[in-house]
Amino acid sequence: MGALLCNRVAAQRFQRGLSGLKVLLIILITILLTMGITIFIIRTYVFPSELTPVVLNAKEESKLDKKLSQLGWQADTGSTSKTSSNRQGSEENSAKERVSEIDELTPEPYRELDGDRQVTFSEKEVNAMIGNNPDFARRVAIDFSDELASAKILVPIPEDFPIMPGQILRVNAGIDIHLDDTRRPVVALVGVSLMGVPIPNAWLGNMKNVNLVGEFGDSGFWNSFADGVEDL
Question: Would you tell me the crossing angle of helices 78-88 and 94-101 to the nearest 10 degrees?
Fold first, then answer.
């Protein structure tokens, strides 16, 4: 009988020790998760790192240059060499290369073809064009999805600003863009967020999910824009 009681006491002590170990493990896991989430929030929203500029390869760069030429823009043929020079840490001859590679102007008759009006830019091409601008290369990124265009913008806060001077403010915005049943463009603000926190609709002038073309399309810019869009 005495041996049985001793076994029960030992089992109870073992269970108490085991439960204490479980509590300690739960506390440690909670601390680690809290630290991980805190670091993620700080690095993503409070102190976000600069964006990585999109770089096209030679084939993609040539394809983009053709599209820009089709729109009447003189392709910056030095952008590829400039990008490669940046990777190698040298930009000494970029200006000379751009000047030497620009085609000479030649007279030609005016023409209008349907093919000249149909040019499509991919998400990567748009971000690559943004990346060619040193002021936006690491500050702006565009995303395209079904009926939605999204932008991520890193805004530097001035040093003399009273709140978080010298830090980076992360702004996200989304715009709904599509054609309605009457083939009329729809352009509506989906929302804007600062540091991952959505801005209330009242602070945006109650413009969220308002079709700007339908609201202001009777005349002016939006009416002209809608009349000139055949497909989207």
Answer: 160
Question: What residues are paired with 188 via a beta bridge?
Answer: 176, 211
Quick one: DSSP state of residue 121? Answer: -
Q: How far apart are CA 89 and CA 50, in angstroms?
A: 19
Dihedral over Cα of 188, 191, 194, 200: its sign: positive
Hey, is 15 helix, strand or coil? helix
In degrees and rounded to multiples of 5, residue 52 shows phi and psi of -90, 120
Burial of 187: CB neighbours in 10 Å, binned 0-12, 13-18, 19+: buried
Joined tokens for residue 119: 């040019």
- CB-facing half-sphere around the CA of 6: CA atoms within 13 A: 3
Written as six digits, the tokens of 42 are 């700080």
Alpha-carbon distance 79 to 61, whole Å?
A: 9
Closest of 142, 152, 123 to residue 48, by C-alpha: 152
Tokens at 24, concatenated: 């300690």
| 157-211 per-position pLDDT tens digit | 888 888 778 788 889 999 999 988 888 889 999 999 988 889 999 999 999 999 9
